[in-house]
Amino acid sequence: QRSTQKTRAHVGYCDIMDNGKIVDCTGQNTIADSNLAVVLGTFPNNMEVLFLNGIEGITHLESNIFQGNLKNPGNLKALYINQCNITGALNELGESPFRGLVNLEVLNLDENRGLN
Asked: Ramachandran region of residue 112, left (φ > 0), alpha (ψ -120 to 50) or beta?
């Protein structure tokens, strides 16, 4: 009999759920601008949903940060970066950090302390 139970594991900074499809790094304040690229490179290649909520060290999203560091950026369907410290005007972000996320259906940047 084959088990259909979804898996959950803690790997590095984040919780990995649903056999790698969901990665939740909510509140992991050891993640910051300085190591975000390295952290993104540790996620499973089948990841579809990424939560980076409540991480005070995220203040800026570099150009191509996701495309250049995720193993399979085209797989990502939902990206939540809420309650971080991203600063500046929303229109200054442009598409550049999100380029290559061709299947992205949900992008949520709510309650960023410096984003207007």
From this structure: beta
- Asked whether 17 and 48 are in contact (CB, 8 A), the reply is no
**107 phi and psi, to 5 degrees?**
-130, 115
- For the stretch 53-111, pLDDT in tens is 999 999 989 889 999 999 999 999 999 999 999 876 665 666 689 989 999 999 999 98
Apex 101 CA angle, 42 and 36, nearest 5: 35
d(CA 87, CA 93): 10
Is this structure's pTM higher than 0.85?
Answer: yes
Residue 41 · residue 15 · CB < 8 Å: no
What are the tokens at 60?
């800026």
CB 112 within 8 A of CB 82: yes
* Residue in the structure block whose two tokens are 């390295």: 38
Q: CA-CA distance, 100 to 91, in Å (whole number)?
A: 18
